[in-house]
Every structure is written in C-alpha cells, then in structure tokens.
TrEMBL record:
Name of the protein: D,D-heptose 1,7-bisphosphate phosphatase
Binding-site residues, Mg(2+): D7, D9, D126
Similarity comment: family membership: Belongs to the gmhB family.
Keyword Metal-binding: yes
Annotated catalytic residues: D7 (nucleophile), D9 (proton donor)
Length: 186
C-alpha cells in the first residue's frame, strides 16, 4: 500500500487562474475520477493537498471550499474511489505559514492526523511547488502535464535540481504507481 498525495487544481480538475469559486467552475479532468478509483481498488491511500489562497484574498470562503470538496468527494465515491482526507492551505503567499506549498506542512499534517506511513509515498502535482513540497516532506514527486504542468516543466531546470518523474496525466501516474517500485535514480 502506498500513500498517494494529490494536488487538486490541474491534477483532478481543470486549473483556473482565478480559483475555482463554485461547483459550477469545478470541471474534472478526463479520467481523473477513474484513476483515483483504480488507486483505491489497489488499496492505496489517496490524500488531497491543495493551496487555496483565494480564501485569504477574499475570492473564496472556507464554507465554499468545503462545499466544493464535499461534492468532489461525492463524485469520486460514485466512480468507486475513496479519499482519506482533503487538506488545504487557506493562507496567502505573504502570510509565511508552514502549510502553503512549497512547504511540506499539508503533507506532514495529513500524515500525522491520518497516521500515514510515508514509506514509498508519492505526490502528484502540476506545479513546481508541488514537487518542492514533496521533496521537503521526503516523498517522491511526480509532475503531470495537465493544468500548469507543461509551462511549469519549462521552468523546472532553474528551480529544482533533484530528478523527478513527468507523466501525461493522473491516469498515467496511477498506472506507474500501480506498477510499484518508483525510483527516479535508477
Ligand atoms: Mg495545481
Ligand atoms: Zn497555510
């Protein structure tokens, strides 16, 4: 069993530059629910970790974000998937909190609260801050090319010196995780 951390925007649903502000603006990416169902059926634990600074800036409220997450989880369950927890950072970049990615705070809090064994854990994200958060938490990063992935990959060489896996989308990431034995150094 592997713990699979997932970023939300750009991995599970379409990324929006101005935040997902309603369920109406939440659009699942093709195959995302099915990929989570696949991971669930193989016994992996899925945890979502997302920055939602729109709460700090007033574009979103906590109630709204949590309502969107309830509906997201409902759709995932209907597809046969299960999510052990959804963790979000409500702070602005300037707040200097420890939970906002690239910090590892969300992952570490999840692993403490859910008593996760991070041995072999992975973090699938579309941002370099996801890769950085993964590395800071000691889990294996995987970059997807959905969402901001393609543009972020172009910037990676200047920012991240550790090798990381790059895959097309969450379905491809799930297939690699199912095969086990992710090692970027071999
Ligand atoms: Mg993202
Ligand atoms: Zn935070």
């Amino acid at each position: 069993m592997t713990v699979v951390f997932l970023d939300r925007d750009g991995v599970i649903n379409e990324n929006r530059m101005d935040y997902v502000k309603s369920w109406h603006e939440f659009h699942f990416l093709p195959g995302a629910c099915e990929a989570i169902a696949l991971l669930t059926s193989a016994g992996h634990q899925v945890v979502i970790c997302t920055n939602q600074a729109g709460i700090a800036t007033g574009s979103l409220t906590i109630e709204l974000v949590e309502a969107i997450h309830r509906r997201m989880l409902c759709a995932i369950v209907q597809a046969g998937g299960r999510v052990a927890g959804v963790y979000y950072c409500p702070h602005s970049k300037q707040a200097g909190c420890t939970c906002r990615k690239p910090g590892p705070g969300l992952l570490l809090r999840a692993s403490q609260e859910l008593q996760l064994d991070l041995q072999g854990a992975v973090f699938v994200g579309d941002g370099l801050t996801d890769i950085q958060a993964a590395l800071a938490a000691g889990v294996t990063p995987i970059l997807v090319l959905t969402g901001r992935g393609k543009e972020q990959l172009r910037l990676a060489a200047d920012v991240i010196t550790t090798p990381f896996l790059v895959v097309e989308d969450l379905s491809a990431a799930a297939k690699i995780i199912m095969q086990g034995g992710i090692c970027v150094n071999c």
